[in-house]
Amino acid sequence: MQVISGKVEKAKKVVLYGPEGIGKSSLAGQFPRPVFIDTEGSTTEMNVDRLPKPTSWTMLKQQVEWVKQQVGRFGTLVIDTIDWAEMLCVESVCAQHGKKGIEDFGYGNGYVYTKEEFGRFLNLLSDVIEVGIHVVLVAHAQIVKFEQPDEMGAYDRYQLKLGKKTSSQTAPLVKEWADMVLFINYKTFSVAADAKGTKHKGQGGVRTVYATHHPAWDAKNRHGLPDEFPLDYAHVAHIFNGSTKAQPASITPAAAPPAIDPPAQPAQEAWGQMTGGQQLAQEQQTSAEEALKPHIPNGIPASLRDLMVQHQVSENEIQIVVSKKGYYPMDTPITNYDQGFVEGVLVGAWQQVFAMVQQVRNDMPF
Question: What's residue 349's pLDDT?
């Protein structure tokens, strides 16, 4: 057996969480060469690379797979926010099992399915780490009542906002997965508001990062950071400078984009050039290629429409596949499909659907 001694330099897994509007996304934007998967559309005022807002759990996973191929182009994948990503996960689980809500499963099975699916997603993010790209998960905070088994009484504490009930299962997964969990909050001080000191008011409001566990919040790090420090990337920059191993030169050319001047949103445009989940197209699309794109009606649900646009699949191709399986007659418009069928079958099992579309294309005589 091979024994590996000493520190192993690799990309980092980071969770940033705190109240809304405190600067979590801005901090994440200072990490090395970041690309955002903006699940809630909150980075529009930031000058960063971002991918289109995912409209389904399937699309989100495909975006992560795409970023994994961009070794040398991006240094950090930021998912902003992971609690909104969890909502896509819950919707996908419900659609695949034909349920209207997570409570419809009964006996807590819906939360178990969500935990299992979320665990697989974290494994996918670990694959991104293995190729040398940092992963930063941005999350909101929620205040919950907490009672320790060996203490009397309960008290309030901050936790990851990963659903009121699913937090007992998915939040621990995220915290265990991460190398670093940083809690960001306003540091306020209580001062006397009268001469007798019977009334107090809050003063201050300095944005502070907490890096170690406290009864009032979750936090951790493995890099000897101080318990608290001002909200400034400079305090953690040394952890991410040169912390990943250089990748073999043979990896970069396959995933590198064409040598062109970067547009205003290069990541979005590069993602839009993908066809069939493969790597970037080698040339920019021409006006003739635009004219050959399949027509996709606007009434199709966004979650399915986005996948069809990404993979250049027409409505007719979907209708052929669906009719071959006996779900709907060939001439039934997608807009007339049941919403549960669209989300649970077409979107939830898109890889199989697209494989059948490709088979249909191969079987055509011309």
Answer: 86
